[in-house]
Amino acid sequence: NNIDTSNNFADFSSTNNSAVLLAQQIFNKYPVIYSSSLTETLALRFRGQLAENSKILASHFTLPEQNHNEIEGFSYDSPNNFFIIWIQDINDHPQITKRIKVTSSILSDNYENYFYNTFGSNFIERMYNSISFFDWVSFYVAMLRKIDPTPVNKIIKMKSLLIK
């Protein structure tokens, strides 16, 4: 049940709340989010939630495209504050799963890697559970940064300037 899942993530004091634990790992990092085409909307939404709620920038990319050129961008002089988040689903193509394993092993020498596996009995449930999880992560990142996640002053200002 998605409500129970969200309620579990709502307990900030829980020592095993995975949303809090991920937020603690990324609140002062630059998250780089990777997904398959199957879960690309999760990566896009999470990136957006981090920007809007947590007031931090992140990037998201989709495999296998990442393996065609972007992997070379992780060079010796890349910033060491990247934190790589891999979103995986049980329905990902086996070749994508292999790419995640191989690529993360190459990048793990210089960057922290976090593996998120969707959970639920069907695809829709896995997506809703994941949205809940990532929304809570973005909220906790804001809390750890001591930022109120609710105002979106720059968005409001931009919209007001666009209608003039």
> What would the principal axes of the Cα set say about the shape?
globular
Q: Secondary-structure element order, as H and E?
A: HHEHEHEHEHH
Oligomer state equals single chain
So how many helices?
7
Helix content: 40-55%
Q: What is the SS-derived class?
A: alpha/beta
How are the strands of the biggest sheet laid out side by side?
Answer: 2-1-3-4
As a percent range, the share of strand residues is 5-15%
Total count of strands: 4
* Rg value: 17 Å
Q: Please summarize the sheet with the most strands.
A: 4 strands, parallel
| Low-confidence runs of at least 5 consecutive residues | none
Alpha carbon gap, first and last residue: 46 Å
Compute the average pLDDT.
89
Q: How do you describe this structure in short?
A:
This protein is 50% helix and 14% strand.
